[in-house]
Specification:
- The structure is a homodimer.
- In chain A, the strands form three sheets. Chain A has a six-stranded parallel β-sheet with strand order 2-1-3-4-5-11, with helices on both faces. The first copy, chain A, has a four-stranded parallel β-sheet with strand order 7-6-8-9, with helices on both faces.
- Chain A is an alpha/beta fold.
- Chain A folds into two domains: about 130 residues, Rossmann fold (3-Layer(aba) Sandwich); about 140 residues, 3-Layer(aba) Sandwich (Rossmann fold).
- In chain A, helix 1 packs across helix 2.
- Helices cover about 40% and strands about 15% of the residues of chain A.
- Chains A and B meet through helix 4, helix 5, strand 2, helix 6 and helix 7 of A and helix 4, helix 5, strand 2, helix 6 and helix 7 of B.
- Chains A, B: This is LacI family transcriptional regulator.
- Chains A, B: InterPro entries: HTH_LacI (IPR000843), Lambda_DNA-bd_dom_sf (IPR010982), Peripla_BP/Lac1_sug-bd_dom (IPR001761), Peripla_BP_I (IPR028082).
- Chains A, B: Keywords: DNA-binding, Transcription, Transcription regulation.
């Protein structure tokens, strides 16, 4: 006797399709009572054990959630996913992933695939290019629980988990000022994304708080890439008065800036300080080590799953309207050699 | 009139559940003819456009595939997934991902989730710990097309795509010999995984071909981690005759070795040459740049999808039995500073 008898085995024994067996076991109205009886009899004989998925089909719950991330290659999102998985596993949920590759079209396809797959809820971080939110509103209309994390949109009434980007950028800029830098440039990200807008605002606020001027020509509009870091440095070096430090909107941009500076033999941190954002893994391995702002990604993933769980399995004690729910995590500074003009780097 | 009418809109208009509407549109036997007629009428009135997913449900195809990877944080797998996505997109398939996190239990859950989600096929790379293949054999028994890539098992009769690991390791070791290194240590990976076994064999063969002895104490059994690279260096340095070069089974192990060597002020490549395997992104950003063997991950992803497509949509001209199908890609050497004792690094 096979201890791992499957639906396929039962189907073979009865000369019907596996789909028929599955439907019969789930008491599907399209299957005759006669067939159901026969299937149950063979299932018993073969000691077939229904798996959790089969029983959750019956309950109308799949215990699967879908997670949309811009790219798994960005370490930050990988860490968020680990946080989601850790929490989801505790509550018996399986996590399916989908990469939008920063393309709104792919993002829409991912949402459709998750709906088709029958997930109980969706966690999503927006692609850089997403400006039409129809596919997310569709989820909401279909009552599929949805929570945004990191890259969110505030105007859709969807619960979200973010890090305090303003505060992170403020801390980074303040640190550069504390190290004696006085002309601090910023390489910005796309301004239709709130996280990048908030970082620019935090940079400006820190300058103002120290009585330093905010100069538009020291703000370079990048697109969150190694290449835009390089372009920004070329722009900064052509200015009559070049900056003595750079706060980059994220670490890959900072990496590009560092590569360009190194090629031009400009000493980091002596001649130019650099701070990034996101605390990507490579930052501690490059030379000099890259100062950055950690966004507590694993914690972000856990909080996002907890919000989603409240929507998927509402408990009576939940009194706060989820439409207004937002979790904000505190950023953590990791200052290394790239900004240590006063020798305080780790 | 709403140009984006959904199933939910139709359900609302008829005061039935969205599930009923969906089933009615898919001509489900459990829905009465009367309801079907009513649904179709409202759908027409609202100019409801069925999406691809709805029509594929009807055809019994989801046009989704599932991809099991050990970890999205390993850049190599991220690149393979990009290759899969590029090809899948061309053929109208959507790609769902699942991370096993190297745990066989998670891997099994992922397979179950993909089956439950109704994917048309599965691509998988084995977790380090997987020694029981029951969940993969289940897929095969259920006639769900399955192709292995990179971390494969040869004994299950499942088509696969691999890089020529033996040749890659042979090339890496030969290169170190060519740079004048004479006592070359190897930090190995788990030997129940064929790829790591093949790399060890390639290392030995290259030594033998150059008339160098294979010494067991120069082979350190690691577990594919930064930490095992560090441990291996500590082991090597305690030997009466320490090695003058290290060929690590993969780049994170090599990174750990380099970190330990640097902390002990041992010059790379002058006193100790280092070569890794996989050409992870960080390798070109660290100092010195890490020599490595590229596995053509994007190409691997494309070939894996093509094999799967042949199984999902068999064409008449396919004459080769897929059970025996295996695609082997050639490794490409990227030699940088970490092994350039003769000054030939890039």
């Amino acid at each position: 006797m096979n201890p791992r008898a499957t639906i396929a085995d039962i189907a073979k024994a009865l000369n019907v399709t596996p789909a028929t067996v599955s439907r019969a076991l789930n008491d599907h109205p399209g299957i005759s009572q006669e067939t159901k009886k026969a299937v149950r009899k063979v299932a018993e004989k073969l000691q077939y054990k229904r798996n959790k998925i089969a029983s959750s089909l019956r309950s109308g719950r799949s215990h699967m959630i879908g997670v949309i991330i811009p790219s798994a290659a960005i370490n930050f999102f990988g860490e968020v996913v680990h946080g989601i998985e850790a929490m989801a596993n505790t509550y018996g949920y399986t996590v399916l992933l989908y990469q939008s590759n920063e393309l709104p079209d792919y993002e829409r396809k991912g949402i459709e695939a998750f709906v088709s797959a029958g997930v109980d809820g969706v966690l999503a971080s927006l692609a850089k290019g997403t400006v039409d939110f129809g596919h997310y509103l569709d989820l909401k209309r279909h009552n599929v629980p949805l929570v945004f994390f990191d890259r969110v949109n505030d105007e859709l009434g969807i619960p979200s988990v973010v890090v305090d980007d303003f505060r992170g950028a403020y801390t980074a800029t303040e640190h550069l000022i504390g190290q004696g830098y006085r002309r601090i440039g910023h390489i910005a990200g796309q301004q239709h994304l709130k996280i990048f807008k908030d970082r620019l605002a935090g940079y400006k606020a820190a300058l103002e708080a120290s009585g330093l001027p905010v100069e538009e020509k020291l703000i370079y509009q990048g697109d969150v890439s190694i290449e835009s870091g390089r372009r920004a440095v070329r722009h900064f070096l052509e200015l009559p008065e070049r900056p003595d430090a750079i706060f980059a909107v994220e670490d890959y941009t900072a990496l590009g800036a560092m590569k360009e500076l190194k090629e031009r033999k400009i000493q980091i941190p002596e001649e130019m300080g650099v701070v990034g954002f996101a605390n990507e893994v490579f930052g501690e391995h490059i030379s000099p080590g890259l100062s950055s702002i950690d966004q507590q990604p694993a914690q972000m993933g856990k909080e996002a799953f907890k919000l989603l769980l409240e929507m998927m399995e509402p408990r009576k004690e939940a009194v706060v309207a989820l439409d207004q729910k937002r979790v904000t995590l505190a950023p953590i500074a990791f200052f290394r050699q790239s900004s240590a003009r006063n020798g305080e780097g780790a």
